[in-house]
Write a structure and sequence with these properties.
alpha/beta
């Protein structure tokens, strides 16, 4: 998406008044019960990022949160021109890799709407568009703890927070941000997979293997299209 990097890994804990998901004793296999606003409504998770490239860290976190929160679907929102993050490969490559990564999962799909918009993209705009198209859905927007710390800097953040439940996926030992915007968020623990797209790209450029860090179909796509390799 626009304002944040997608959560690539995380652990954390939940304070009073927050949803407890995973990590603490007795809660690891629990799902959050549907609240009054959830009854009869479709619950959709949104995991945004440049996915440059998508890797197993993205997928582990996305699947964990989808399962633990009992979401009906998780959507990978591939960023077009995010105003706070640069991408190295063209959008059509990043979309194709994301689709390859989840080709065998019926409950995870790819949404490429942001790649078709000119100029910077903002989370508030995307959420408003989704609400207009699917008024019967409750949206749950996933982000990392580092990104959550900078929520006050986001473009039209109050509007974004009103349109979705923000689900913060925290790394081990992460401090909970103290700003007031954290009050309506959900704090989630998820398995740590210490992989970054930056390191994957660097290793490919250096001629190193990235096997087992990206799905095999993604690795094949990288090889077929010679992505991140030095220009001859």
């Amino acid at each position: 998406m626009s304002e944040h990097p997608g959560p690539e890994a995380g652990h954390g804990e939940v304070g009073a008044g927050r949803t407890v998901v995973g990590g603490s004793a007795g809660a690891d296999d629990e799902r959050r019960p549907a609240g009054p606003r959830d009854q009869g409504r479709r619950r959709v998770g949104l995991l945004g990022g440049t996915f440059d490239p998508i890797h197993l860290g993205h997928l582990v976190v996305g699947e964990y949160v989808r399962d633990r929160l009992g979401l009906d679907q998780l959507r990978l929102l591939v960023a077009g021109d995010p105003w706070m993050k640069d991408s190295e490969s063209a959008a059509h490559h990043r979309v194709a890799m994301a689709r390859a990564a989840v080709a065998d999962h019926d409950a995870i799909v790819v949404d490429d709407r942001e790649t078709h918009r000119d100029g910077p993209t903002y989370t508030a705009d995307t959420l408003a568009m989704l609400h207009e198209e699917e008024p019967g859905c409750d949206f749950h927007f996933l982000l990392g703890a580092d990104a959550a710390a900078h929520l006050p800097d986001w473009h039209r953040v109050d509007e974004a927070l009103a349109l979705a439940t923000f689900v913060v996926v925290a790394r081990p030992g992460s401090d909970r941000p103290t700003h007031d915007l954290m009050g309506g968020t959900t704090w989630v623990q998820a398995p740590l997979v210490d992989i970054s797209s930056t390191q994957v790209r660097a290793d490919i450029t250096a001629g190193h293997s990235v096997r087992y860090r990206v799905p095999e179909l993604v690795r094949a796509y990288l090889d077929d299209h010679h992505l991140y390799r030095p220009t001859p």
